[in-house]
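Aim 2, interim progress. The first record below pairs a target sequence with its structure tokens.
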Amino acid sequence: MEPGFEDEYDLVVIGTGLTESIVATACSRIGKKVLHLDPNDYYGDLWTSFTFPQLDDWARRHVQLAGGKNLPDNGSQHQQQQQFQSQHNHDQNNPSEKVNNQTSNIGISLSKVNLTAGEMVYPWESGINLISNVEPVSYMINEAPEKQDLDKATEEEEEDVEEADDETEPWTFEKLSTERNWGIDLVPRLLYSRGAMVNLLVSSNICRYLSFRSIERILSCLPGTDELMDVPCTRQDIFNDSYTSLIEKRVLMRFIQLCLELERRPDLIEGFEGFEEQPFIEYLRSKGFTPLLQHLVLNSIAMVDPTTPTQEAMEQLKRFVSSSGRFGNTPFLFPFYGCGEIPQAFCRLCAVFGGTYCLKRTIDGVVAKDDVINSIIVGSQQIKCQNLVCSLSNVPKSLLVPRQVTNISRAIFISSGSVKDSQCAGSLLRFPGPFPILVVESSWASLIAPKGIFVIYAWCDSFTGNAKEDLLPIARKLFNFESGDEMNGKPKLLWSCFYNQATVDCSSITDKYQNLYVTSPPVNELDYDVAIEEAKSIFDTLLPDEEFLPRAPDHDEIVIEGTQTNQEIDLD
């Protein structure tokens, strides 16, 4: 049965990725009527969090798709969307024929389409696939065949040590699949505790829908070795560190104090004269930083390349130092249940203020006049709208102008132990190079995996065009791929998935309709700055005189004015 929508909305949004969700929420928050659709059967699009079975299914479906095999309908794509075939050139020459031929396919007869003079009906074709080179691999032992004719004494012995067996029982694919506590991200992120996302969540009061855990440590791979060390982030960490000498500790402490002073006094330039545009490595050398300190500051604190201009590197350092100690020793937070909770939190607030949501549904066509979309067609319903916001993966190719595409190589690793022997809640690791690789480790402590399981993410700008070729060398540094016990202190790798994700700047990516706004896919960044800035830019274009995501009241602050009297009624 077709869901019934209202006849008119101020804004229609397709895709529940982070950027689209922020725009939808910002508009709903100030009283605009918002219809938010997603052809998938889950929230978040590429920003989602999956259970392990969902992730494995997602990966295998992309493998099948790349192989040209027909995929079974799992409800994640509206079936009517497939009825459209791209007829871009033919339709432009025969617009009236397009209306007659296509209208019946979108479930609405021509007589029911309310067309004014000059309006035309255009089908909304399938979008583009942003995922490629997907390679899931399981390293777990095969399931043991069902045991038969067990000796009774053996059965009794197994019962006596049942608890011990539970603790030492090896992980199998079936065992991982039956676990429920999963939240595996396709696009993992960390949040600077004083970064743009935390500030937005707090100022809008969306933080009430989320919980976070501090990333407990930052790791660094010692130059020339595979050994991982904990990077000291606080005064106590620095003086307890066993890798740095007393002189190095003092140099590092003075430098951190300088960064704190720069945060309080942005105009302070003492000691930086002449270095502002010079490579940061030159500044560090001039201040007597040893090779070890240079490595730590560049790769684990500032997280910049040696050739980065000093002024730019100092901005990154100030960001790191100012966020350190707010909620934990490191500057970073990770959401409980996975990063997919963040777009859902925005969607939740949008719904609170009247936004309408429907999964497994996209639009089937648009009614436009010249370069303006006047209404959309969803199933058998025609809906007027003032603006349309759509994720890139849900925009027909025929509407896009050529753009330079960047590929990000990503990998998800599931292991039975931490990359560095510990039971800590999370780690961040950066491998330097022409294409730096970021590694984020999380575990059951953040409620994203069953107890005893660690989920490790790695990503970088692709330099070979294939995620496995880019990231496999790092995986071999971190994990034991062989069956059996852990070797050389490396955790046993249970399952992995390599994949490439395309990204492109979607500003002005389409010139077909002036009230169509396309959001960009996730980019290669650690926090959410780019997505927030893009969402704010779209909102400011739509509603230039309105406040972007003002604070939402708490439940106990909401009152309703009585219609019969002047008495206010507190909901509590």
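The second target in this work package is listed in the same format:
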Amino acid sequence: MEILAYLIIGFTAGAVGSMVGLGGAIIMTPALTILLNVPIKSAIGASLIALIATSVMSTAVYSKKELIHYRYGMLLLILMVSGSFIGSAIGVMMDARLLSLFFVALMFFAAGFLLYQVFQNENPDARVEWQNNEEPHRFPPNGVLLEAHSGIRKFYRVQHGVVMMFISGIAGVISGMLGVGGGIIQVPFMHAINRMPIKAATATSGFMIGYTGMAGALVYVIFGQFELIMTSALVLGILTGSQAGARLAIRLHARWIIYLVIVVLTVAAIRLFMKVF
């Protein structure tokens, strides 16, 4: 029965997470802790490993749609992976109640970010600086976005790359400590600071979280925060859920799904706080 519950949680987290660009761990970790009484450190360890599956499946979909900025993503990964190692080491040694408090704060932040997305202007890419060509020698390099409906390739300029590299280091620390992949930090800042199109920011972040997941998971496995059966079932659920969510995200307007996720995150944050404290 528990295996079925793990599969359902994995599928739901993978689908919803990939649709709204936050990754499934922000949903999966509190679900495991609140619904199944899994210790938060074991839930975080499983989430980090599951992030690899999320990244592989969403990258497979977004790559075909030419939404991922690979060259820029690899630059950001330099500090992000390093930060993930540091964050994981902090997480495994931190008191579980304090770790839960950090996760509660992160869930409220995620809900606030989604709420901002809902109430911003109708064109989320209004501040994107579109270009006529790729300019491959520029730092950071311009990105290219394939429009789903027209099939036209559009180039965009990535702003303030050095600033974003340092933010990525912080995102890596949070990713390793809380097992959330860093997308909750990366996506809003890549959109706001780099002025990347929101779909490109989401897709590029999805590509990156697999690497931060591997770095963080290694530390949790070494310290024994790993359950094979639970993790395997979660990964199997996420493998199908994240692919389904990525496909739907390309075609559907996700406003009502975002409303639902905001409510779920807020309620889960309150429940987790009450459960631990």
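The mean pLDDT is 83. This observation will shape the mutagenesis plan for the next reporting period.
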